[in-house]
User: Fold this.
Amino acid sequence: MNRVMIIKPTRLLYAGLLGSPSLRSLGALTLYVACEQPFEIRRSSGARESGFLATVAPNEPHQICSCDSAICKVLFEPECIDILATLGSLPGCLQRPDPRYLQIRNSLETLLQDSASLDTMTEECLDQALLGHTLQPRHLDVRIRHAVELIRSRPCEHLFAAECARITGLSFSRFIHLFRQQVGMPFRTFCAWKRARTILSFVNRPCNLTELALESGYPDSSHFSHSIRRIYGLRPRDLFAGSRRMTILTDAA
Assistant:
């Protein structure tokens, strides 16, 4: 399978090296798809599972390894889908290469090989092509949706909850409570994930990591390294080293 990453506003498709990640905590619902051999996933509970498909909830700490040295995964952003309904429709961990695994793996391979067609494909159509069905959307309060769109459009800026509360016409405490209830995670965690997500557009380019950290809104290289390792389970230099020959296509908003 080609080494490709396709970044869309609320979806991300990846086929490439796995590396040796430590505990990671991705901010999106993640569907892992084995390339050939089953992978092993260890969740925060300590339980170890071997499987060909596995679904991990947003911000759930986990560790994954595979003798293939490669992995496929699809990320679904939490603000756009009903997380509980989606978790119910996808396998927690599929231990055998049954027809459902083969269908998803083959569909993913087809999409990645014909990646140019994804430029005009809506995310609902992408879900249909990959999973065989569309996902139930998350219906956000219009005020929280406005805050989410603001964060997504300015991921490298330091937006404060108090500022977003003022813009949306809510009190600080009401905004914090409603944001977490609606989006499924705290405001600061959501902002940290969106900032880290922007880094993925640059991982196949030669660049100065310190300069990239500052341009991406991190106060210094130490904070950048800690945040990236907490989210992706890899040091920034290892993340970039493993992505040098990867094709990256993006129309992320």
